[in-house]
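JOB MANIFEST
job_type = single_chain_structure
chain_count = 1
residues = 109
[input]
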Amino acid sequence: MVKNIITNDIAKCNQALIGLYNVYDPEIGLNVIDLGLVYELNFDDNTKTVNCEMTLTTQFCPMGEAITGDTTQSLTSSFPNWTINVNLTFEPPWDYTKISPEGNEFLGR
């Protein structure tokens, strides 16, 4: 189930992905996983912390706050009582090559 996402725990990453498939970019109508916005999901069992590195389609995405908020909410639902850190990065910058085959099909590409 892990799709080009760097992780230190495949089982927990798969658990996180179940919820993240329901986090959508409202302007595009595609979820953050198939868009390729999530770069890393790492889990620290000792501190019960989830660290998510993700990007947006542009640095000035008007829906960025909503997308990162929904991502935090989704990870909180998947990992209750864990600390969730969603960090935005623009390195590497997002481009259309990061969209999954399912995402391209949805977009008619």
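[summary]
The CA atoms of residues 28 and 107 lie 9 Å apart.
The first strand starts at residue 6 and ends at 7.
exit_status = 0
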